[in-house]
Specification:
142 residues; mainly alpha; 68% helix; 0% strand; elongated
Length: 142
Amino acid sequence: MTDALLTDITIFVLALLVGFEVISKVPATLHTPLMSAANSIHGIILVGAMLIAASANDALGYALAFVAAAFAAMNVVGGYVVTGRMLKMFRRRPAPVPAGQAGQAAQAGPTTQAAQAGQATPDGQVGQAGQPSQLGSGGTRS
């Protein structure tokens, strides 16, 4: 075993221990947002895959470059997808329509809906917004 290999293995083991300690201290509620952001930042892995591809001289090198680029792309895209889903959780939801109003709007028909919106009805009359008006077949208000 050479000194360079021993140094590399030592750095790798120390990085594993430090990473484990840091991750184990993160509360579960923060773990997903932090990991999704970290995954999206890992675009540097794509640079490493490109460096492998540039220095490859045989089929094994090209295969490793392809696998590294595929995993790096999945990591980056997955980070953005998870981040988008997390941010979607914090958007305001539209106000629910009361059950009575939803059924009335569906049964009212285009004439009543146009009158409520202040638009011209098929009879040519204009209703006032906010004041429902039922127009009969003769154009009179009922």
